[in-house]
Amino acid sequence: MILKPIIPVWIMALICIALLVFIAYDKQFYEKIKGNKDKAKTQRQKLLIKNYVINLVLKVLIIIIIFVINMRPMVQNGEMEVLTSDVSVLFVIDKSVSMAALDYDGGHERLEGIKKDCSHIIDELSGAKFSLITFGDTAKQEMPFTIDGNMVSSMIKSIRTEDEYYAKGTSINISNEVIEKTLKDSKASPVVLFFITDGEITTQDKTLQSFANIKQYISDGAVLGYGTTTGGKMVNGTYKDQPDSPYYYKYYYENYQRQTALSKIDENNLNQLASDMGVEYIHMEKQSNIDHKLKSIKDKVQSSQNTTDKTYRYDDIYYYFAIILGILLILNFVNQKRRIQ
Fold it and tell me: Dihedral of the CA atoms 119, 192, 126, 286 (nearest 10)?
């Protein structure tokens, strides 16, 4: 087992100690049972004392569990190879509204597929440095290059598509300048770039600009295309909890007739992107589509450095303690109700 604290241990320890001191003295309780020490305690006083002790024990246990959860315990789950390399991996992820289309691997949301595929890439290229750029209405670097793959994976899992009511249309072109600046400023080498999008441009200027300027900064990678030529429906955020509603999917009007909106992959743009940057284009219909590229990247690293380390994969188990925490909170609530009556 290993520990990866969320909040620094010393800070959490101070917080927990302060909470313990706070609950150790219940002024209201002492006022209720205060009386002549020579007199026998009434049944009511005995019940108050019993409930107070139970309440105190429950609160102490709750604080202990909170401290344990913060420690983020992780248990070993298998062995894996870690490349000891200077490889840097840059993810460029489209988070426009169309990435919510339901046409990935049998009707799943594109963005959910992207999150799982990126976690897979991070696991396979463990030991590399990772960075993340997202784009939609705007483009920005979400995280600088770091060796903490778990942190980057968590950041990717937190990505949400843009709000459909505020989105102004998406252009792939907007990411170009941010990518070039990120790579130029980081001076990372070699760089593997994964450009992830459906290729759609929904702004007025639908012309894809050249990305040939990026080619000089990268050594490998791929353009990963998500979506289908037949298109995928997108859930209307206002009615996402009403799947039986006729307005559940996004729609538009054409010649006064309501039409269900579809987002379709634009493989012309995706192929041009790949050609400009000198990388492969891969249509991501399922996770295994990327495996041959990952194997190729790992083979190149191994052949150039011939160094791999064995390490262990660890899984979080804090959620088990979260279940215990929930049970303790319920018990404490019930005890408090009894104490008030």
Answer: 30
Tokens of 314: 């660890």
Got the DSSP string for 323-334? HHHHHHHHHHHH
Q: Which structure tokens are listed for 184?
A: 């130029």
Same domain for 294 and 211, yes or no, is yes
Q: Are residues 262 and 288 in the same domain?
A: yes
Q: What is d(CA 156, CA 143) in angstroms, rounded to the nearest whole number?
A: 10
Q: Tell me, what amino acid is at 71?
A: M
What are the pLDDT digits (tens) for 97-138?
A: 889 999 998 889 999 999 999 999 999 998 889 999 999 888
Q: Tens digits of per-residue pLDDT, 52-90? A: 788 888 888 999 999 999 888 888 776 665 555 678 999
Question: What is the largest distance, in Å, between two alpha-carbon atoms of the chain?
Answer: 92
Closest CA to 217 of 284, 290, 133: 133
Instruction: Show the domain range for 89.
Output: 85-306
Query: CA 284 from chain center: how many Å?
Result: 20
Question: Got the DSSP string for 185-218?
Answer: HH--SSEEEEEEE-----SS--PPPP-GGGGGG-
User: Which residue(s) pair with 139 in the sheet?
Assistant: 135
Q: How far apart are CA 277 and CA 291, in angstroms?
A: 20
33 and 158 fall within a common domain? no
Residue 102 near residue 109 (C-beta atoms within 8 A): yes
What is the Cα–Cα distance from 16 to 14, expressed in whole angstroms?
Answer: 5
Q: Identify the three-state secondary structure at position 284.
A: coil
Q: Where are the alpha helices (DSSP H) in the chain?
A: 9-24, 27-33, 43-71, 110-124, 149-157, 176-186, 267-277, 291-305, 318-340
Mean pLDDT of 162-186: 83
Amino acid at 292: H
Higher pLDDT, 313 or 266: 266
Question: CA–CA separation, 100 vs 106, rounded Å?
Answer: 14
**Same structural domain, 265 and 292:** yes
Return the SS3 of 182: helix
